[in-house]
Specification:
about 425 residues; binds zinc ion; 2 domains; Urease, subunit C, domain 1; TIM Barrel; 14 helices; eight-stranded parallel sheet
Length: about 425
Amino acid sequence: MLLIKNGRVLDPATKLDTMANVLIVKDKIVKIGSPREVGAKALELQRENGEEIREILADGLVVAPGFVDVHVHFRDPGLTYKEDIHTGSQAAAAGGYTTVICMANTKPPVDSVDVLRDLRMRAMDLPIHVLNAANVTVAMQGQKLTDMDALYEAGACGFTDDGVPISDERLMREALKKAKKLDVPISVHEEDPLLMNSPGVNYGDVSKQLGLGGAPAVAETVLVARDCLLNQDIDAKLDIQHISAGMTVDILRFMKKKGVNVYGEVTPQHLYATEQLVMKQGSLARVNPPLRTEADRQALIDGVVDGTLDMIATDHAPHAKDEKSKPIEDAPSGMIGLETAFALCNTVLVKSGRMAISDLCEKMSLNPARLYGLDAGRLYEGGPADLVLLDPEEEWTVTEADFHSKSKNSPFVGEQVTGRVKYTICDGKIVWA
Ligand SMILES: [Zn+2]
């Protein structure tokens, strides 16, 4: 039995926000309540089963549902020199995540039942819940749909060609229809290749200074608008990944008002940083879609605060040191983000007074869980014992030692942030402390 004492317990689903104790037996939350109620329950159970009571003192800590990340790259299979499901899970646990969804742009990609089955098998003995999205199109070529029925049967929780957009509108409609029928999300990476000069750095002042072509915001906005319109009469759960442009927030706000079934993901890095980070950190700050301007960043924050953007997802994208040490035009795009996600978001959204910590937890756990229909993102008696204990006031400086990922490609090393993950509990076990 695990007894969490004197924490500030948050459940975004019921708006519970109270000082309470939480009792966990095996993989379930058994009781949430006053010290007296929970203590009595613990003693009663101990008399029945003789189990020891292990205590965690949570004074000054927030006790919240374990985070759910709908967008990680664990590079497994095929690119495991960057990350694998084991190191990725450790990084996730250190970041307070108890459920993650792996993207399907692996080597080979997850476009066949064989690749997916192997991943589903290997996910069984990981410390956290690792789910898999499968590809929308064969080999991510955007030419032909995968056997989405078979992939769904084999355990795909959703579909995505993350990394590349689906250019063909007719095929996109077919995919949306299929996703609607299966009632699973379809997640899209929106950067129109025809409008891209070069990916990873915003088209603007910084790209010009560096002599790079740059990725303009219109490459994103045009596809976001297109896919919302394509989905209007289909009504699939359309998830726009890693939104970077302020105009995209406006489009989503409009489309949602029109009743389009669309969801928005935003990353901690797009909320925290701008294209200026590229000047400071070079290729480490190269990411698709790119970090943009301060006006874009403010619009993203507004979108999170007013609910236009539903979820914070990391797009954790590990790359090896030698890959990221290349000149910026040759280095791959992407950055790791699981271990720093809460701190960056807490600093930029909560410490700044823009939103309450319970609302941040909603974006990082409840909303993503709801989109995927997962029994996660909530704290309730009888529910899964997947929790995170947070110190929202702890100030710390990010160092390389804080990363448990195989790769260290974070542009936030040296950054001073506020808010730290103290414990992660998954299935009733402490998987990070
Ligand atoms: Zn992507």
